[in-house]
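Late entry, written up from scratch paper. The run itself happened at the end of the previous shift, but nothing got recorded in the book at the time, so transcribing now.
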Amino acid sequence: MAEGISLSEQGAIAKEFLSGLLASMELVAEVEVRELDQETVELSVNANPPTELGILVGPRGTTLHALQEVTRTVVQSKSPGRTDRILVDVAQYRERRVAALGRFARQVAEDVVASGEERALEPMSAADRKAVHDALTDVATVVTRSEGEEPRRFVVVAPA
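Output as recorded:
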């Protein structure tokens, strides 16, 4: 737990900020707060139908990433000490993205094994690279590594 305010208080501040943002954008959605572990709180924004929340996700989650950073900054501004890890998800985007990247990574692994040649993937965010590495951790026929410099860092999948 961070010094200063508790994880539940951080979640409450973040929820208040996100709820206000949704109201100002005239989006009807619920914000749920869930403590994932002792140092991580996740705020999940959901609506029915979820299609109107796409504006909060943006292309490849870029707007969602920015929303998470702004939310974290708001919480930090109200905390006398450091803050814990604050995650924001909209319409289960992160969960769906990890699943899609896992399917993609397994297909790339099959192609790499069949061709015997390594393959460099397009540049990705740190979270997306982690999803690819995690998806292929148990695949004994390939190895993965990250190369390049941010923001153009990418994953290479190579035969084991």
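DSSP finds five helices and six strands in the chain.
(Scratch paper discarded after transcription.)
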